[in-house]
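Let us practice reading a record.
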Amino acid sequence: MQDLTNKTALITGGSKGIGYGIAAALMAKGMRVAITSRSQAAADKAVEELNKLGRGEALALEADVRNFDSQQQAVDKVIEKWGQLDLLVANAGIGHFASIEDISLEQWQETIDTNLTGVFYSIKAGLEGLKKSKGYFISISSLAGTNFFANGSAYNASKFGVTGFTQAAMLDVRKHGIRVTTIMPGSVATYFNDHQPSEKDAWKIQIEDLGQMVADLMAMNSRTLPSKIEVRPTMPPSAS
């Protein structure tokens, strides 16, 4: 198992939900973690809480994955502050769910730009840093990246794209010693799509579970690569 102390990470969309859970788990291992949000205030609030929890150090950055220059600036700030980039987690995502008849052009474009193009921009911006560190790139896709459903045309398209893109990228960059994994969660207890987590979500995957998974991937011997991981609740209500 690799020691993660003082390793550095950049997590997009890290002010809440899965990104926040990953940040907390990595800081518990002594890592230095930068999180991005489109809102500086939201990032600052999350970092204030993270710095109370972990052994590592947290940094708040305002960035928008839909804008390549914004992503490049976030990467540059991490490397300027800490001198290296060991892990980049492309987590930022949104969901618009409607039939193909009702979904708007704007909703389609925002979904693709955030969920798919944002992943491309993230690895593109971080690639040179990851080459230098022989680092790790992780995308957060979804079980919706292989399973389609009604009213999911935009979301399915974006997550199918993320799954395929990440696996192809893995083949492209492994020659540089960069490991690439896509994590595909099912139902997670988060604020996604304006959901408010509650005790009713106890059956779902929890953000700390995914955080533990990322920390375990980072600590794994670099000779081994779990390239695609599907994650499901053990006992969803339909199975009880």
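A brief commentary: The chain has a mean pLDDT of 94.
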